[in-house]
Amino acid sequence: MNPLEILLNEDIQNFINTNLDKDTNQLALQKNNFDVDYIRIINQIVAKQKAKFKLPTWFTTSKILYPSKISIEQTSSEKTAEYKASLISGESLIDLSGGFGVDDYYFSKTFREVIHCEINTELSQIVSHNFKQLQIENCTCHIGESSVILEKLNRKFSWIYVDPSRRNDSKGKVFLLNDCEPNVPLLLPKYFNYSNHILIKTAPLLDIQSALTELDFVKKIHIIALENEVKELLWEIEKGHTGEILVNAVNLEKNDTSIITTSLNKSYRATYSLPKNYLYEPNAAILKSGNFNAISQLFEIDKLHQHSHLYTSDEKKVFPGRSFLINAIVPFQKKEIKTHLENQKMNITTRNFPIKVDEIRKKYKIKEGGSVFAFFTTDIQNNKIVLLCSKI
After folding, report:
1. Does pTM surpass 0.85?
2. Residues of the chain with pLDDT > 90: what percent?
3. 56 vs 4, 77, 302, CA distance in Å?
4. Which DSSP string do the residues of 246-281 spell out, in sequence order?
5. Is 36 helix (H, G, I), strand (E, B) or coil?
């Protein structure tokens, strides 16, 4: 019997579901009472635990099979997949890097036909089984290298979707699209034989300006943050497009979505001032966009300094990020710091400041937490200051 089919055995499924709250390291030490490699069962539990909050639809659907926990960690969350599917629609979409199929599950709701390509045979089989359990009937799974599948099918698609993976996954280091597999910049001319519209998903570490030098015909860039943590970048490519490039800074919250749209072709002008009554810290998606002057102009708020990326106003504004009431402006001088900050409890943030948070806490014996938010920054007069704020 296929090892995947064995995992669907009722007794094994019951064992998985009744042990989801258990420590899998302890479970692994127990005797294996099933006629299947015990580590495969343990891996199902680990992966399903990972899926509980990230993939609730999969978690609550019976007899879902899971790949390795790494595949679950790397796949799109349902929140980001749902947003992607809201951007594009049409007759047909081919996903050249299908993975666990979360994106395709949501694309199936906006396209009449979806083709899932996956080079890993077992992962493709898992996805095919899960689509049946999820009652998705318009997705077809193909096993093999995506370029070969494209050539074999030899047809036009409304959209091509591709999520290239880094060949050298050095965490924290800048990378290029040319360092990924598939090499999208190299393959774009080939892809255009099969579609005029391509949606590319990349890791958030990708530098936007560098990617723009690698990609032709970029029409729109989406920076997707989930609860203020940037998860992915999306690149809409339209064959022949040479006009304006829009950037959507998107922050997905549980009950709200913030989208701030700016243009890479437009010159925005920032205004500057000393701190006023209110302080604003942009959300992570806006910070990734780098279009800081646009935020000043669009929301009619002043920047504290060219490099501080904090904003201020006299009147309270509705702002996509954190908003604070400024209660005190403390010069960064020994006597003032000793009086207002030493041995206190507060939340510290640094923006355009020469000392790191950990060093500040240690030097001035500041405990973490409380209701006071201290921003260590530089003002327009190049003075080092600390803004003591309360969150709105």
Report:
1. yes
2. 88
3. 22, 9, 42
4. EEEEEEE-SS-EEEEEEETTS----EE-S--SEEEE
5. coil
